[in-house]
């Protein structure tokens, strides 16, 4: 199982694992902290692995692609004053790409 969201989907991800299953964590877009049910973790013999999804060399290659104009998927742009709209969209999982908050005057 790949987990890239964090607290919003953590429990569902853990419950979807088969005994001896592995959860690879590669992000935390909904927050940095989760609760872990320790008895479930050790009785089911789950493995939790952190991953950056690549090496430093691969990250450098990615940065080069971005500098060359690699398109970045932007779902929507919202003024900072309307952050609630952007947050609601993020919480519902309705975005496909990045949600951008724009400061006034930019």
Structural description of this entry:
- This protein has helices at residues 10-15, 38-43, 56-67, 83-92, and strands at 2-3, 22-25, 47-50, 74-79, 98-102.
- The chain is α/β, with parallel strands linked by helices.
- It has two domains: 1-54, 3-Layer(aba) Sandwich (Rossmann fold), CATH 3.40.50.720; 70-106, no CATH class.
- The chain starts with a strand and ends with a strand.
> Which percent range fits the helix content?
25-40%
Radius of gyration: 17 Å
Order of helices and strands, N to C? EHEHEHEHE
Distance between the termini: 39 Å
The CATH class assignment of the largest domain is Alpha Beta
Q: Major beta sheet, specifics?
A: 3 strands, parallel
Supply the number of helical segments.
4
Apparent shape = flat
CATH architecture of the largest domain: 3-Layer(aba) Sandwich
Structural class of the secondary structure composition?
alpha/beta
Q: What do the pLDDT scores average to?
A: 91
Unreliably modeled segments = none
CATH homologous superfamily of the largest domain - what is it?
Answer: NAD(P)-binding Rossmann-like Domain
InterPro entries: ADH-like_C, NAD(P)-bd_dom_sf, Zinc_ADH-like
Pfam family, one: ADH_zinc_N
């Amino acid at each position: 199982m790949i987990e890239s969201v964090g607290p919003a989907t953590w429990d569902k991800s853990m419950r979807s694992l088969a005994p001896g299953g592995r959860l690879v964590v590669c992000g935390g877009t909904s927050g940095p902290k989760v609760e872990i049910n320790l008895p479930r973790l050790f009785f089911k013999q789950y493995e939790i692995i952190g991953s950056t999804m690549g090496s430093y060399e691969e990250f450098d290659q990615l940065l080069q692609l971005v500098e060359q104009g690699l398109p970045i998927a932007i779902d929507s742009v919202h003024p900072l004053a309307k952050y609630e709209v952007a947050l609601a969209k993020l919480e519902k999982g309705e975005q496909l790409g990045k949600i951008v908050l724009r400061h006034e005057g930019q």
